[in-house]
Design brief:
By secondary structure, the chain is mainly alpha-helical. Helix content is 74%, strand content 4%. The chain is built from 10 helices and 3 strands; from the N terminus they run ααβααββαααααα.
Length: 233
Amino acid sequence: MQSGVRYIVNNLAHSRGARVPDNSDVRNRLRDAILRGAYAPRQRLIEADLAEEYGASRFTLRNALIQLASEGLVELQPNRGARVREITVDEAIEITEIRQAVESLVAERAAEKVTDHQIAFLRQVGEDMRAAVGRNDFMRYSELNSTLHSALRDIADHSASTRVLEQLHGQMVRHQFRLFLVPGRPNLSLPEHLAIIDGVCDRDPEAAGAAMAIHVGSVIATLRSFAEAPALS
């Protein structure tokens, strides 16, 4: 019955000139759903159900899945359709090694291009991060972490690096959540972030890049500890 209702609603939308979701709309909505955990790793993505859910044609939905597969978020299985791709810890380490090189480049470029206004903003982010850790507000610290890295990408204005990092982030999101839960992790990463901010604000590309390499290197070390941890029975 519900399927019939949705079918009628979609047809009414067509007849009234409502905008039909295109491939970009569907890809972005499905991508956001995967990143926020609406679909579990290895969960099958059934085209017919998703097409109905997103009010899109099977053709549009299939194209969106193909694009998400190219981003590493979905895997397409012959004769079995699509499913959410599960990133192993070993893959996460390899991805983060790539991120280490690219993020270091971004930090260097940001140090070369940063303006006085942007320096004031970065300094404030650093102070806010320090305050968040001081009051054990690790959710706020996580938000500021994202703000800092996003701001550095904007300042660097290096479009190729931004595209690479956005794709890597999509593949790493679940492991990043796991990193967030590691006891003491914010206290470890805070001085690393502050060193990055210092390097950029001092307009010292070498220091900024080195600080970023150290920071992402500590993420790699933590991921390796996951790989070495004994499996729970």
